[in-house]
């Protein structure tokens, strides 16, 4: 799935939103960006003058850090103009030229730029540009020696298993890339195996999105093998990959020993409570697990699963497992599980003549107004002042200002 929730390089948890704060160059200035609107008349032909204006004359601009040109019918000439502009502009950091159907010629131009890239560009979105295997070969050759790009979005293209082999070679060599979105392509078992082989040698990638592909159970097993040795990945999205209970069980072997992964999204797969149980028990068996979120949100579970999860969370209080719902749970108990947590905290604060803010500040020894999501979840579950369960903690986190993996009181 696509996240502007890419909005991870910092998920130390968390969604693509979340790890990008880590990869982005630090600056005290507010980020400025320029967004070009899509032309509304599809019948109107673009003139040479309009193509030339694609660069927006920002070669010497020092304030625009982000340029959004998604779905603007950019032509080959327009892409060439953009890349020439980037050779002159050392301030632009983020470029989005998704959904422009750039094809092979566009890929050649972008690859040539990446091979000579000395700009400040670190985030590049190339989603939906009809890139195929030949395009993948060109882009991967450039990225094998270009380490400036930290976040790369290649989702919604036409990459198949051959393209995955090119990507695998790039991943084995690249030491700069931290977030890679390959969702909605055409990878199947061979492609999944190739990508996992590349990941075995990669030591910098933190976020990987391969949702809506065809990894299957064999791909899940290969990724589980990667997790046994990988110490950099903190976020993986495997949604919609045809993974069954057998695949979940094989993937869980990696969770038993992995010490870095924090988020695993695996919903929209044919997994039931049996597969879900194998995943949470793997986390329980790993005392060094950093898992904070397991998303199986299309899977309905039983009260028996909930009891097992209670046992898992007793040793891993930072963990949140998102599932569809509890089957066969009495209505009265269901209502209790979802009682407004902020109301419970307010009642406690009133009874003890303190402010709600004082309550939250008491959760952290530093008394700061922010906490990482995982630490906040752990503190809320372990505190004894307010009777609150993990479902209520999840809702509380949603209500608080949660950005880049941090809860803001």
TrEMBL record:
Region (Disordered) residue spans: 1-32
Superkingdom: Eukaryota
Biased amino acid composition, Acidic residues: 1-21
Database matches in InterPro entries: Leu-rich_rpt, LRR-containing, LRR_dom_sf
Protein name: Leucine rich repeat containing 74A
Species of the source: Jaculus jaculus
The gene coding this protein: Lrrc74a
């Amino acid at each position: 799935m696509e996240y502007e929730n890419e909005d991870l390089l910092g998920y130390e948890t968390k969604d693509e939103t979340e790890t990008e704060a880590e990869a982005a160059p630090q600056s005290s200035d507010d980020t400025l960006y320029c967004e070009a609107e899509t032309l509304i008349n599809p019948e109107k032909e673009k003139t040479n003058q309009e193509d030339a204006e694609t660069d927006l004359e920002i070669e010497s601009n020092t304030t625009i850090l982000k340029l959004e040109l998604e779905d603007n019918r950019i032509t080959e000439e327009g892409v060439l103009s953009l890349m020439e502009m980037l050779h002159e502009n050392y301030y632009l950091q983020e470029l989005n030229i998704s959904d422009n159907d750039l094809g092979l010629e566009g890929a050649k131009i972008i690859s040539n730029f990446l091979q000579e890239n000395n700009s400040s560009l670190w985030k590049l979105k190339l989603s939906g540009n009809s890139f195929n295997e030949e395009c993948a070969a060109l882009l991967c050759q450039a990225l094998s020696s270009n380490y400036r790009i930290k976040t790369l979005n290649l989702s919604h293209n036409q990459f198949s298993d051959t393209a995955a082999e090119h990507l695998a070679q790039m991943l084995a060599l690249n030491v700069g890339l931290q977030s890679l979105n390959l969702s909605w392509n055409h990878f199947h078992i061979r492609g999944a195996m190739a990508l996992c082989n590349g990941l075995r040698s990669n030591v910098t990638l933190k976020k990987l999105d391969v949702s809506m592909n065809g990894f299957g159970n064999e791909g899940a097993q290969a990724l589980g093998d990667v997790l046994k040795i990988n110490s950099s990945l903190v976020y993986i999205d495997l949604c919609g990959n045809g993974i069954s209970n057998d695949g979940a069980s094989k993937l869980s072997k990696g969770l038993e020993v992995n010490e870095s992964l924090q988020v695993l999204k695996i919903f929209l797969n044919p997994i039931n409570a049996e597969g879900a149980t194998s995943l949470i028990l793997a986390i329980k068996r790993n005392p060094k697990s950093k898992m904070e979120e397991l998303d199986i949100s299309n899977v309905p579970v039983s009260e028996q699963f909930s009891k097992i999860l209670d046992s898992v969370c007793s040793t891993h209080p930072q963990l949140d497992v998102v599932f569809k719902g509890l089957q066969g749970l009495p209505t009265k108990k269901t209502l209790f599980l979802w009682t407004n947590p902020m109301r419970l905290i307010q009642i406690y604060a009133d009874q003890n003549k303190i402010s709600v803010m004082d309550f939250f500040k008491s959760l952290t020894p530093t008394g700061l107004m922010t906490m990482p999501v995982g630490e906040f979840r752990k503190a809320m579950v372990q505190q004894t002042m307010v009777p609150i369960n993990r479902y209520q903690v999840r809702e509380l986190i949603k209500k608080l200002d949660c950005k880049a993996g941090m809860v803001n009181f």
